[in-house]
């Protein structure tokens, strides 16, 4: 269904948007299988209503939010973000939602809240990929609290002016445009404020290949491929690859978060 | 298998009969490439055609290679030695799909830049292994003609035994591609088929030794 939102000119890109078809048919969502088209094929069975998101942990007022209340918590905005997958492909996507900070402020994080953990739903029976045991389900991702409070970090309810299709992480997900796509957890049921750095799913599987920070960085190659360039989905059969930008082009907004850090080590 | 199950010697296919089936095998082996063309014209290559074609060509190269290696065990099991007439064509198809795989990588991943390709070969184990597999395979394809068989004599067979190394390296390459994603079912499945094809040869070799 339609999800009306006001365009936010501050987060607008002139790049050609990736087609709605490609955005909703080429996904990584391993709960439904490891193939790129598995999510489209199998995600329809996922139950997205009723849905609550529990925001808990190091917070003065932890609580659960019903998805309908969550949608109305702040004004919905449409923002166009670049999405850069760690697999070296990219898209340009119009998301609908608001800054995650608006939600986090509601529960009043304490001084012990140094990190935020995102937990994706597990629905045995509705998610054929759960049998693969590639990931120790549920899928867990995380951010440092300052990254989570950054206005670019977005809580997303829709795409292309409609509610999220299941394969894109319905009914609610995050989008963190300066980080590789796997950081942006889908179909969230729990957001935990924690003191210690969470052990995220991909770090647990292959710490040498996937780091906690996972900032888009053309200078730090993945062990199995270069991150210097990317393939823009939908650019056509013979289109050359495009250069990958530091922090996926969001350096002006986010570089200061990492001042003094060795990004080669904290990849 | 008991002797009674085996076809009588008179049922052996002649070389000419097997040769007659060649156009059919050729068309079947061309199926993956024809499918790419069909999908290409019918919006069927998905959101990332480059990735699809690189993966698809790699997989079909491996399938063709395993089919090539299945010819010898098959001709022994069904007692049709003339089947060897199909082996070179299957081997050349394995080479064809490997070249497609390599060109896909060279163009879509490395933008035809030789320097960038060389860097990739040096830096990444799975590319290194794939390239090490490709070199002898190219040599096998080049020396597959009747003229080369005659000219090389005994050396020809010695050289062409490297196909076992090529196959093992190919499965290893596939395994390395999947490493880091914990998703090994397919490399293991192809590895198991290869192991079976090689074990049959070992078993045959041992039995021949004993018979002497």
TrEMBL record, chain B:
Heterodimer of a catalytic subunit (MsrP) and a heme-binding subunit (MsrQ). Keywords: Cell membrane, Electron transport, Flavoprotein, FMN, Heme, Iron, Membrane, Metal-binding, Transmembrane, Transmembrane helix, Transport. This is Protein-methionine-sulfoxide reductase heme-binding subunit MsrQ. The chain crosses the membrane at residues 21-38, 58-78, 90-108, 128-149, 158-176, 188-206. It comes from Pollutimonas bauzanensis. The keyword Glycosyltransferase does not apply. It is found in: Cell membrane; Membrane. Belongs to the MsrQ family. Its main location: membrane. Binds 1 heme b (iron(II)-protoporphyrin IX) group per subunit. One of its GO terms (cellular component) is plasma membrane. The keyword Calcium does not apply. Part of the MsrPQ system that repairs oxidized periplasmic proteins containing methionine sulfoxide residues (Met-O), using respiratory chain electrons. Thus protects these proteins from oxidative-stress damage caused by reactive species of oxygen and chlorine generated by the host defense mechanisms. MsrPQ is essential for the maintenance of envelope integrity under bleach stress, rescuing a wide series of structurally unrelated periplasmic proteins from methionine oxidation. GO terms for molecular function: electron transfer activity; FMN binding; heme binding; metal ion binding; oxidoreductase activity, acting on diphenols and related substances as donors. One of its GO terms (biological process) is protein repair. Its cofactor is heme b; FMN. Residues 58-170 form the Ferric oxidoreductase domain. InterPro entries: Fe3_Rdtase_TM_dom (IPR013130), MsrQ-like (IPR022837). It is a multi-pass membrane protein. It comes from the Bacteria.
